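Review session, final week

We close the course with one last complete record, chosen because it touches almost every idea we covered. It is Translocase of chloroplast, a protein from Helianthus annuus with 305 residues. Go through it on your own first, then we will talk.
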Amino acid sequence: MLDFMASQLIREWSGIQQFPPATQDKLLELLGRLKEKKRDKLTILVMGKGGVGKSSTVNSIIGERAVTVSAFQSEAPRPVMVSRERSGFTLNIIDTPGIVEGGYVNDQAIDIIKRFLLNKTIDVLLYVDRLDAYRVDTLDKQVVKAISNIFGQEIWHRAILVLTHAQVSPPDSLTYNEFLSKRSEALLKVVHLGARFKNQDIESISIPVGLVENSTRCNKNGKDEKILPNGTAWIPSIVETITKVALTESESIFVDQKLIDGPNPNDRGKIFIPLILAFQYFFVLKPIQRWIKNDIDKEVKPQWA
Ligand code: GDP
Ligand code: MG
């Protein structure tokens, strides 16, 4: 019965046939590379602020309208896992609602995501933001921090910084590539700060950047593939980056109950208990004993004596 239900949920990846032949060939080659390395399943988690293009990116990669895209707020409040199968290979992409609301990270949204992910293994994290923005702020740092708190810093070994709206015209003074490197540097810096990397970690953890243009007005090359202003066909390119990250040495993240519970707040202060007792002994108990002794001494010699 369960098998039957699972096979109902994992649909054939028919969206792949939507892509121009050149893209299809490259995608199948990449799936082949994964299968060669004995990987027959890949689970990708998509996270980021609301409205940055997470759901659109899921649909673009799958090649069909699998999840809801909304121009104005009110996303589906729950994560959705899209599963597609192609010649024995299963691709899972988990789309999540934005975790920010009214300028703050929403703990309830995080709880819902955590519960959804229980007993799943995350191979790749797509951390999504827009390329066509000029600022990073404390909110970005909070989102990175929240992701690091859920999965641990290790998640960033398996992350790709995905920048949507990649068909952007840079401001006059910059070339496309200059703008791209400025924007990604600024965001990566926020990731380093928010995830609390130590300086020596920053060299060992290099988070790749993937570019995405979900608009139907995206330019195309002679083979009908959607391309970026620098000429790259972006769908094969981001799937290649995903493949590389999936095949890195670092462990995938298994979401178990312990990870979901996080560090127990009741345990957090426990190491201080001996210190607090010692403090009380020397600075509270001792002085009181001294005062009592002084009083007794005074008592021994009554004033009238
Ligand atoms: P989410 O809230 O992060 O899931 O974002 P959505 O995928 O729902 O997208 C929010 C809005 O931005 C929708 O109107 C999308 O059509 C639009 N959008 C998403 N990605 C892109 C992109 O790469 N380029 C352009 N031009 N619009 C995009
Ligand atoms: Mg969405």
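Two points worth writing down before the exam:
Residues 273-300 form the longest helix (28 residues).
The domain at 11-262 is CATH 3.40.50.300 (Rossmann fold).
Good luck, everyone.
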